[in-house]
Specification:
- The radius of gyration is 10 Å and the shape is elongated.
- The two termini are about 20 Å apart.
- The longest helix is centred in the middle third of the chain and has 18 residues, at about 10-25.
- It has helices at about 5-10, 10-25.
- By secondary structure, it is mainly α.
């Protein structure tokens, strides 16, 4: 589920980081 950073911008990057952190917590 990769989103093009050129079209989405830095806002999606932060959301992606939060989602990754959440997933890491669930898996870990």
């Amino acid at each position: 589920m990769r989103i093009n950073p050129t079209t989405s911008g830095p806002v999606v990057s932060t959301l992606e980081e939060k989602n990754l952190g959440r997933i890491a917590q669930i898996i870990g």
